[in-house]
């Protein structure tokens, strides 16, 4: 693999760490699982240095603060978990070269180690929280950067210079862009409620899903201020570090009225080498206007009513007597042959299969974190597939046939599922690898494995 750059957009709520959140950490479980998946990608990328930008690191308005510390240390003591500590060696040569390169380009910098009040070597929670998931053991050296009050073009320039310095020093780097989205999404949000703040989160997620990281620099400052965000400058800096970018959103959630986004980004060569793309193609479903099973028509009607009119249809009684009364179900959407959304349940969570399909269809159209919400103009081109799950049974790898069996892998509270008969998934080894990755389960962690079959409707 060429040196490349791996980017990680990482949330940093301390409550996501079990030692801080305790039972409440479950409220951010999707983000924690996504960070475990990012850690797996990072381990496979195996960078020489991690460059971490945190909005909570000491900064100034008119310059970028870069720490040339030889050692870094941080903990979560102010959040009630002094035992959660991280320690790293500093890549002093990289930090020093970055400062010299930026100054040579006319971009103001401050060496944090030369200003005692800035506390060189001390890591804030914007670094400690994501790094406690990504590299808690401190195996790799880091460089800690602070965003500035300068404009977005200056932040993109810093990202570009990070990549140039890495090439000059022959370093393979990962860039961790730490930051949260809006802090004002609900009345119980810690920063208060701001109607319209959700538009900031929707826009950021949409841009990242579409791989348009360059577009982050053009987000209206008034909207960003309304949202009370803290991550945009980190994300924009990351955008400068990448060319020919591909992305994958791992999770988005907004407990307590604060938006948390986790995503991976890389140049196309690195993205392909790390195999970061979940298989996006498989057997397709019914097409609008064509003959399709009633359960697919139900999913289409639920999506159409919700996307066009904001309505939630009442689940009807299904006429196909071969269908179970209740079952888990996955609704998969395709647009022009490519995956456009997939949400499902392993076991029934509603009173009927019809209700299960209605709910999962709407979720697939509007809440799959990998994609923007469906637009009305996409509905006439939408293909839909509904998989009704049969009860799973425990199995071994030798029992799996990816063409017939879906698989569920379980490790503690982490659980990953992969449907059967997906294009490009031809072996049990490949099937288990992807299921593990989706759950953030490492390749050497023990798992409990279950297989299942589906009744597929198109």
Plain-language structure description:
- The chain is α+β, with helices and mostly antiparallel strands.
- The chain folds into two domains: 5-273, Protocatechuate 4,5-dioxygenase, Chain B; 286-457, 2-Layer Sandwich (Glycoprotein, Type 4 Pilin), CATH 3.30.700.20.
- It is built from twelve helices and 19 strands.
- The protein has an eight-stranded mixed sheet. Strands 11, 12, 13, 14 and 19 form a five-stranded antiparallel sheet that branches.
- The longest helix has 18 residues, at 152-169.
The profile of the biggest β sheet is: 8 strands, mixed
Mean pLDDT: 92
Number of domains: 2
How far do the termini sit from each other? 40 Å
In DSSP terms (H or I, runs of 4 or more residues), the helix count works out at 12
> What is the CATH class of the largest domain?
Alpha Beta
Task: Itemize the secondary structure elements and their pairings.
Elements (H helix, E strand, L loop, with lengths): L4 E6 L7 H4 L7 H17 L3 E5 L10 E3 L4 E6 L4 E9 L2 H13 L4 E3 L13 H10 L7 E5 L5 H18 L3 E6 L19 H12 L11 H7 L4 H10 L3 E9 L6 E8 H6 L12 E2 L6 H16 L19 E7 L2 E7 L8 H14 L15 E8 L3 E2 L11 E6 L2 E5 L9 H12 L8 E5 L1 E4 L1
Parallel strand pairs: 1-8, 2-7, 2-8, 3-6
Antiparallel strand pairs: 1-10, 3-7, 4-5, 9-10, 11-14, 12-13, 12-14, 14-19, 15-18, 16-17, 16-18
Helix pairs in contact: 3-5, 5-8, 10-11
